[in-house]
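Researcher: I'm comparing several assemblies side by side, and this is the next one on my list. It has 784 residues spread over six chains. Same procedure as the others: predict the full complex and return the structure.
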Amino acid sequence: MPEQGTGSPPHRKAAIRRCAESVFAQKGFDRASIRDVAKAVEMSLAGLYYYYKSKEAILFDIQRKAFETLLDLHAEALAGVRDPEEKLRVVISGHVTYFADNLDEMKVLSRESETLTGEFTEPIGELKRRYVRLVKGIVTELGNDKGVRVSPNAALILFGMMNWMYTWYDPARSGSAQTIADHIFAIFTRGVLRQT
Amino acid sequence: MPEQGTGSPPHRKAAIRRCAESVFAQKGFDRASIRDVAKAVEMSLAGLYYYYKSKEAILFDIQRKAFETLLDLHAEALAGVRDPEEKLRVVISGHVTYFADNLDEMKVLSRESETLTGEFTEPIGELKRRYVRLVKGIVTELGNDKGVRVSPNAALILFGMMNWMYTWYDPARSGSAQTIADHIFAIFTRGVLRQT
Amino acid sequence: MPEQGTGSPPHRKAAIRRCAESVFAQKGFDRASIRDVAKAVEMSLAGLYYYYKSKEAILFDIQRKAFETLLDLHAEALAGVRDPEEKLRVVISGHVTYFADNLDEMKVLSRESETLTGEFTEPIGELKRRYVRLVKGIVTELGNDKGVRVSPNAALILFGMMNWMYTWYDPARSGSAQTIADHIFAIFTRGVLRQT
Amino acid sequence: MPEQGTGSPPHRKAAIRRCAESVFAQKGFDRASIRDVAKAVEMSLAGLYYYYKSKEAILFDIQRKAFETLLDLHAEALAGVRDPEEKLRVVISGHVTYFADNLDEMKVLSRESETLTGEFTEPIGELKRRYVRLVKGIVTELGNDKGVRVSPNAALILFGMMNWMYTWYDPARSGSAQTIADHIFAIFTRGVLRQT
DNA sequence: AATGAATGAGTATTCATTCAT
DNA sequence: GATGAATGAATACTCATTCAT
């Protein structure tokens, strides 16, 4: 899946990141070699190192970009939304459709969530915590709104419903991402909010 | 995490498997070297190969044993149970508590679900399909019982709630496994069965 | 036997080949390790793999180059020769003196004639068949010229006389290669052509 | 090619030797593992070491037995023979037919002629020298008889004709061993003895 | 901005051999 | 006589990375 481009500098790094997403998604970060990535980008091995200082730096960039995009996307979609239920719908919908539209990113994000080490751990950890805090906050708010005390595990269980998709989601057979998002939203809200 | 034991032959293979679970859980299958496993078992590198013909064969054994144990465990727990709702409760409870009691196995099973290749792929694939079929069957049965048409994605979403646990479950902080199982059961049944 | 040279890229692969000839000749292909070759070339282990994709690929290259050189050498030497007896003299002489001048190649070619596997087998097999065909053709032609029916084994026996040299030929003690070539030519022609 | 036997001790060692001949002939001494031999004998790996102290010891035994058998065989066949020409015929015939009847031994003897090391080198070297001396002696005697000065290389060239057979002899296609022996005898005697 | 060439450290695996039983 | 279990040393090969150009 080599990337064509104008060749202008700023695009090359993104091209590498996109190719690497695909390669890491297919083989897994550890099994994929930097040579595989170079082949996919149609660039020399050494050439990659002009743009990224290490293999892990590429993974870092993939994860950072994914989290930042998701956070931006939610920030925009949530602007002006007041109703906590609506907020949750918006966030689930954004998460699920983004994942469905960016399958490789989704795989890499979900599967390699504990792969980064050293200097790379913390910045991604921070993004991840911000992301979880956002969702947990909405869930709590929604509980308060409905007069239900919600377990701190609830949001994590919700993430499970969404993130596990990387193991089974198939655009050709699983239905539309929006349908799945609605489904997950329905299960979660009914399940968490209604008392038996 | 060396294994203590009588050293009698039949135990050695199981000891290797258990140590490997721990090593693979901590470092990931690909990053873990066979040397790491050997060190954990306190056995020589070559000694391992007397029991397992390859690194992948160990992973295979871990996965096979885990699926077989889960299937056996469910078969036993389901014996005599007629009510579909009760069946689901039993299965979720079995799955979640088994995972919580066997954190390493859970991690390896969830994280390395697509790692096996070649001759090892199919037997595990077959076990996995049997397992999914079991849960899907119960979910469908439950839907019929309640007069609700359940999406084929529902069971996969349920697996997400349970399997994603490997990323967040901490025995010291997440509450008892049984509580989590009840929680997931509640979310799922209420969410899936109640019409809005 | 490290290679001296300008170090310019095109020479490196040939340098590796020559060192490997020497190493394989001394220890035998199987007993020689790629480390031995690397040491002989004064290059790192991994460096070799930049030029050759496997140990067998080096052996392949040695054998290919030897057969191609011999075939070229014969083609040139036979140009313009009509007399079958003269042709045979030329070929025997070329084969024996080439072997004597390239003792390592000779050893590797004779000793490792059945060592190559997989993708490497066929191309060398083809060269070998061409070579045998050339000699068999000349022997048959010579027989026809003298009105003698020559057994198909004759050429193989001739190859035996020449190729077995690798077990006994010692430049310091066996006499000149040309003398040996004359000797073999004499034995073969007299022996095969004269009726008792 | 497992060996059946009465199980009585003296036979086991011979059985191992025969199986090893077959294994070494097929894969070459270096590529064949002691495990391959054990499998062929249908004996445990460790069991072999009761009979042979090392892999090389088996090769040694194969070579020793082959040379001793050949020497015995020649001694018997030469008893009472006076005519040098007849002596040579007898020796060539014995060598070639023995090789044809014991293809595996022939391969191992010819191919692994320089494989033995250490304590094993000398005893086999001594047998080899005795064998070469025998043939060289007959050739010289024959030359004297016919009034021809024979080069010391002649016998080595003769060995080449015979020993190279291991690369081409096929019982199904190469004709009878006796015919080949006659052929080699004819080529050698005519070629070496007749003056042009 | 990009690359050919090179390498040190590491990988899974195999091997001949041993030894307690 | 024979074996199951075990091991130290080696093997071919791969990898992320660097550097002179």
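Model: For your comparison table: Residues 1-7 of chain A have pLDDT under 50 and may be disordered.
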